[in-house]
Write a structure and sequence with these properties.
mainly alpha, single chain, Growth Hormone, Chain: A, about 450 residues, globular, MFS_trans_sf, transmembrane, transport, Major facilitator superfamily MFS_1
């Protein structure tokens, strides 16, 4: 059965001014989301002091956001395959910014938990939708590198959250931190209205003329023109709207990929959120005074950037799977080193190594996942994989609270093993997507 393939037209459009602008629009959204996710981690010592929180309440505080993110990832991911990317692209950033801002005015612990869950509903949807939107406007050349660069904005958001916590919390308190952190998302909500619907989504939903018009506009912004013979061929190959269902994730061609990706997303998230939610508190447990926690957390966040950039280089040199597996293994070793370190220099050095590999692994994973699924099921696939992250995000803070209360080494060993299992799953992925075209159906 013949169908419309936009690959020749997307390649003609190339990578230019439009995609660079889109990278910033999506990337700043990611940075805003990272700030929302990491804020509780950085504000937790001050919040715990104000509300006299128990260890169980601290775990619940860190978990609340992920409950909402789980619902957001599954609902917005599926919805974006059914009715288009544009609605989710705008609504998710608006939701997480609005409720993120309202969190600052919580009168008590219970209200704060509810507002963080609602914030998470937006954040959970932003991640799969943004990645699909950006990937579907990219030509094959250097696509992996650019997807990792989008993921690197997470590091900038974490860095901003750590820097703001360092500057704001000791002077103005944790509530001011939540107010300032919500501002970027509020501004982005208006900007996103100017981003067009994904042409690949339009094509598989039977709106071929609209898809080609979007690509004409993008080509014009990039200073190019589409080859009319290629346009005519694409129009001749146009077919009826294509439909998908969740069960397509378990088709013969996708079953193994889906299950392994779910495993990777779950284990990397157990390790990442289990460790990074508690890093400021663990630094205090290792002897650092509360004011000193914030600058050390800032430098840990800074180490994420070379992790991303090295992964961006490697995914275009040796493929997606090998860097993913190696960086996950490096994360596990970094967790072990952090658990055993005793001197201030050793503790900070191990934390920086852990941060480098952990975020590089995320970059490689986000390069692979959108390429593993066709357009008709792409955001469903990304959203379901992201859902594993949210399940792990619910579990990991409680595991960290439970185990660190007994023995810090044991807690970090458990999270290091999770990274190791993620590495094994990465090496078992059946397909290398490096250099391949994005499938539409």
């Amino acid at each position: 059965m013949r169908h419309l393939s936009l690959d020749p037209l997307v390649e003609q459009v190339g990578y230019g001014r439009f995609q660079r602008r889109l990278l910033w629009v999506c990337g700043l959204g990611w940075a805003a989301d990272a700030m929302e996710v990491m804020l509780v981690s950085f504000a937790l010592p001050a919040m715990a002091a104000e509300w006299s929180l128990s260890a169980a309440q601290k775990g619940l505080l860190a978990t609340a956001l992920f409950v909402g993110m789980l619902a957001g990832a599954l609902i917005w991911g599926r919805l974006s395959d059914l009715i288009g990317r544009k609605l989710g692209f705008m609504a998710t950033i608006g939701i997480d910014s609005l409720f993120g801002l309202l969190s600052a005015f919580s009168p008590n612990f219970a209200v704060f938990l509810v507002l963080r869950m609602l914030t998470g509903f937006g954040v959970g949807g932003t991640l799969p939708v943004d990645y699909a939107v950006f990937a579907e406007f990219l030509p094959a050349k250097d696509r992996g590198k650019r997807l990792v660069l989008l993921e690197s904005f997470w590091a900038f958001g974490t860095l901003a959250a750590a820097g703001l916590a360092w500057l704001v919390v000791p002077r103005l308190g944790w509530r001011a931190l939540f107010v300032v952190s919500a501002i970027p998302g509020v501004l982005l909500f208006a900007v996103r209205s100017y981003v067009p619907e994904s042409p690949r989504y339009l094509a598989v939903s039977g709106q071929q003329d609209e898809a080609i018009q979007v690509l004409r506009n993008v080509a014009r912004i990039n200073g190019k023109e589409l080859d009319e013979s290629a346009v005519a061929l694409a129009e001749q190959l146009a077919q009826e709207p294509q439909k998908s269902s969740v069960k397509d994730l378990f088709s013969r061609d996708l079953r193994r990929t889906t299950l392994l990706l779910w495993s990777i997303w779950f284990f990397i998230s157990i390790g990442y959120y289990g460790i990074f939610t508690w890093i400021p508190s663990w630094l205090r447990a290792k002897g650092f005074a509360l004011p000193a926690v914030y600058p050390y957390s800032f430098f840990m966040a800074l180490a994420q950037l070379p992790g991303y950039f090295s992964a961006a280089y490697l995914v275009e040199k040796i493929g997606r799977r090998l860097p993913l597996g190696l960086y996950l293994a490096g994360s596990g070793l970094g967790a072990l080193a952090f658990s055993l370190a005793v001197s201030p220099a050793g503790i900070v050095g191990a934390a920086i190594i852990l941060s480098f590999f952990a975020l590089g692994a995320w970059g490689a994973l986000y390069a692979y996942t959108p390429e593993a699924y066709p357009t008709i099921i792409r955001t469903t696939g990304i959203g379901s994989a992201s859902g594993m992250t949210r399940i792990a995000g619910v579990i990991a803070p409680f595991v960290g609270a439970l185990l660190s209360g007994q023995n810090l080494v044991t807690a970090l060993l458990v999270f290091g093993v999770a990274y190791g299992l993620g590495a094994l799953s990465a090496f078992l992925l059946p397909h290398e997507t490096w250099g391949s075209a994005l499938e539409d159906e």
